[in-house]
TrEMBL record:
Entry keyword annotation includes Transmembrane helix: yes
Alphabetized InterPro entries for the sequence: HGSNAT_cat
Pfam families the UniProt entry points to: HGSNAT_cat
Entry protein name: Heparan-alpha-glucosaminide N-acetyltransferase domain-containing protein
Keywords recorded for this protein, A-Z: Membrane, Transmembrane, Transmembrane helix
Transmembrane helix in keyword set: yes
Ranges of residues in domain Heparan-alpha-glucosaminide N-acetyltransferase catalytic: 8-161
Record field: transmembrane: 52-70, 90-108, 114-134, 141-159, 197-217, 224-243, 249-269, 290-320, 326-346
Amino acid sequence: MNTTASVRMGSIDALRGLTVAAMLLVNNPGDWGHVYAPLLHADWHGFTPTDLIFPLFLFIAGVSMAWSLVPRAVDPLLRPALGRTLLQRALRILLAGALLHVLAWWLFDLPAYRVWGVLQRIALCVAAVGLLAIHARARTHWLVLGALLLGYTALLLGADTLAPWHNPVSRVDTALFAPFLYKYDAITRLGHDPEGLLSSAGAIATTLLGLIAGSWLRAGRRGALAGLALVGLGAGLLLAAVLPFNKNLWTPSYVLWTGGLSILALLLAHQLIDHWHWPAIGRRFGVNAIAAYLGSSVMALVLIASGAWAACFAGLLSLMPAAPKLASLSCALGFVAFWWCVVWLLDRRRVYFKI
């Protein structure tokens, strides 16, 4: 399907929304000591269903640019304005993430402020890939994707170790940003941040793959997209033999594997919603995605700091003392349901917060 105008796809909004709902679910268990294994990230090397959520969100961000930016960037006169708008939005997302971490630092009296985070990574990926969407051709997109994957693979394979704390990604982030990291040991002077600078090379590659996939979807190349998904899955498995799946390092094998799964999810959503007209479940989260994530994060921090979150889990646990993991999951599901009601009301009143 070709278009010369920006078009809003129900499948893209729905898939983005389901991804945000999944983020809320896995980020907010009643108690971190009682969580079902599939709802946890792999400790280091490995892959769980939860490890697909963030790359799927970034992939969908790239797909969205293929529909919102690329058609308008055909006109060279519009490119400067598109670029300014893009960078301003990325800056607002970055500032939102920075302020969220200020709140966490203040509420929990943390030893150091954390520079990097989920919203900061989203901002970086949106800015980098958005500029490519506006100013570069499709061939350049492929060249940049290849350079990111090959260069990052060479760096990681050339390292003496990929162990926690001692791998090159953690060492670079620690040298540049310590102690302002997710984890930092002042005694050993070792640190790590799963959303740090160097591993953003893999995250940008994931977003760029979404841009390419979205462009192919606009062109109606669904068969080619299915083939690309299979190539990504196969290449990811082969590369994982020497460079394991690792979300913390966002390894190239992880990019390829999650990219293949994301393409399949996109094709399935496109077929079910855009062609078979199934209900776009998740769309309401999708049209208020960043606002819902930011608002729910603020609410979660306040509930945890006030003790209300622990009280909620304790109340549920008293109802099901033999099933603490189920009580923990019920707490998370209630949180998602609350925010589902919030975004439903916002959508019903046609209120859409754009950061």
